[in-house]
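Below is how a single chain appears once it has passed through the pipeline. First comes the sequence as given, then the structure the pipeline wrote out for it. We keep one example in the README because the format questions we get most often are answered faster by looking than by reading.
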Amino acid sequence: MDFKKRTLASLIAIMPLMAQAQFSQTDVNNFAKETTLTFAVVDNFHNKDAGFLGTITLNNQSDVALPAGESDWQLYIHSVRKISTELVAGLNIEHVNGDLHRITPTKNFTGLASGKSLVLEFDAQVWVVAYSDFMPRAFFVSGDNKPAIFANTDSEDMTQFVAPFERENQLRRYNEPKDLTVLVTPKVRFERNQQTTSQVSQQDALKRIIPKPQKVEFNRGTATLDSSWQITFQGQLKNEVMVFMQDLQDDYGLTLKAQPDHIKLAKEKLISLKVNPQLAGGKSESYTLEIDDDRIEIVGSDNAGVFYAMQSLLNLLPANSQGTVDIPQLEIEDSPRYTWRGMHYDNGRNYHGKDAMFKLVEQMARYKMNKLHWHFSEDEGWRLEIPGLPELTDIGGYRCFDLEEKECLLTQLGTGPFKSGSGNGYLTRSEFIELLTFAKDRHIQIIPEIEGPGHARASIKAMEARYHKLADEAQKTAKNNLINKKNPGKETQQVDISAATQYLLSDPKDTSVYMTVQNYKDNSMNVCMDSTYAFLDKVTYELQQMYREAGVQLTNLHFGGDEVGAGSWVGSPICQAMFADPNNGVAGAADLKPYFTQRVAKLLEKRGISPGAWEDGLMYDRTNPFKRDEFPNKTFTANVWDNIWEWGVADRAYRLANAGYQVILSHGTHLYFDHPYEAHPEERGYYWATRYTDTKKAFNYMPDDVYANADYTRTREPIDNLEALVGRPLPKLEKPENILGMQGQVWSETIRTEDQVLAMIFPRILSVAERAWHKAPWESEQVDRKSQEKDWAQFSAAVGLKELTKLANAGVTLNLPVPGGVINNGKLEINTPFAYLNTEYSLDNGASWQQYTAPISVSEQQSVALRSSLNSKLKSRITHIN
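Resulting structure:
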């Protein structure tokens, strides 16, 4: 089988053919070290809302000159905005794949002398209003030399290689239509924070449990919890008790003894733990918690209910308390709003290390969340070791400069040319089993996602590498195997490549041409090949073995289904043969997605696993879901994300639920935590769904009425009449029992480190925990704004007073809100969204900082720097007045 390497062939074809390298390794290194490469946005208004004008500036302060004319040097940049300019200043700009672009000299290049600069002006897709849209680690290579990263771009401080955003046509996305975003300033923040007028005492903030219980009554007095207390528990609660005792000891210095309840204890101060399946009418995860001066009684409807009661008890303990702590006497009756309270975590695009996953699971449990949707496979990476398929992690777990992709995937998303670059790596099998066990002990189910048929480039390329390796081995084995021994003059080699093709995901003769949203040309599994389903079954089998070894059952598996490139498979002879067969129900390309979904659903059903998919993977068109009765599965979950109101498909949550799918609300406008916290160029994240999502916006999400969340269009125009905006009737929810719950999402294109990903998730995830567990009285089509603001004031005060500190103590890097501030009548006033969060100011441009406690006298023209502060290390981004 002759595998056609179209991508590689096209890459090689455009390279200038040189007799020898122009530069030594020392030259390459020196040029990249001493030359700065800087990106800049020139004009977002350049092409209405369809593109922006930018520049790349090379300032050559090295002693290495780039010669005039053609040469063998190449410059690579990561640009998530596909560059459309092909020729500028005698240089060719080529889109390689994904975000990778290459710049090479033509015969018209005039050279770049030492001490000189070169500005390359280019047109690119969409618009850029944030530093994080530009990726780090541009690099330079020549001949057979190793590539070298431009030193100023080898940084997570984007200001080192991105020019400032200052003008309107840099800070706004477009001017046709008008970008109505309110650009954030200290004054804008201050006024927004001032809208929360309810004052919450420290005592009330300490008593506010997150998520809020359904019913809580506080009694007079407190109980003093110290190490003299003992725990008595029902035998089945042993694992929960172990986690509880460890948390008390590690976080609060409380060492308590525990005994099963068949052992009689002296009349000491007791924490009693029991299970009563009839509690709350048998509703799972429910509990009661009663605190008296010498007794704490916890009863759960099941083990999870007892565990959540423990979390409520821990939530009442003040941050930083050690050894002895007073807690209020109270009575709680509590049950969850939804059975699905989740967080989606993408580390397929960028791997952030093992610790990030354990920290996420630990804190999800603290706030009674129970589903971790783990997106471990993507175009840019495969993050889990699979026995029998080492290429998935050997190749798919790493990105580097390897255009043939024999050693690694094509470098993407700012990783740069080396395997040591950011975003590389994977969980070993044993580490994942450890994580599963850790999650099981905290009542969190991990739902893995094997992304397909789109977004599958990492697995596709890994299986192509496997094919080449095994096919070469088969060729060597068959070298002397003659099948026509009677006629030696007509010797023919017998080559068995069945092992090589067993899990192949691509048709070598496929001529399909497509481009995905993320600018990939080759990321669709071939859904017409039986080996695709053999691959999915193999990975599912290995996942099942890991779950079993961890003592849990794999009951849900997500297969993606979203954003398949239009035009995929139409040029595949294997697919065309399917179209020609009148007996298989596949008449053309439009039938292939439902065909794929049916095969995967049946495959999973045989293994006792419920499938899940993103909404667009379950739609024939904009409004019609795949026929539900085509799938044998009792449960089929659909993550509904696309509520860009003016796009007219935000009713899919109800359409899919009414059609019989089990819906998990995952809406982009309120629940996507890869979006910025505020509309400011220094905030990390994409902003395609909404210009920003802060903790309050997520808190205000109303899952029981999807349409009630329609606040703004993408231009930030207020929505007064959603039906008029969409232009057709909006279906009502006929089967509310099919809304399982909700989850937050974080996608990691712009997120390369553990600190970055945790800061994007925390503290916004607390709002998801709140809404998924507790329905607030103010939630309705006509929101009770006064009640909503009071609820937010209590929630945010608790976050500022204790939750942020507890999270930081657990090693979680947080996003601290940038303060608001004004100078009125000679007085400096500062606030934040979270009452009791410390703020600091500097009157000497950051040379020294003072804690803000009350308005201070300054002149109206005084330059003031502001920041939030949690401890000596954790500070917010700095903002300036004047």
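The chain has a mean pLDDT of 94.

See the next section for the split statistics.
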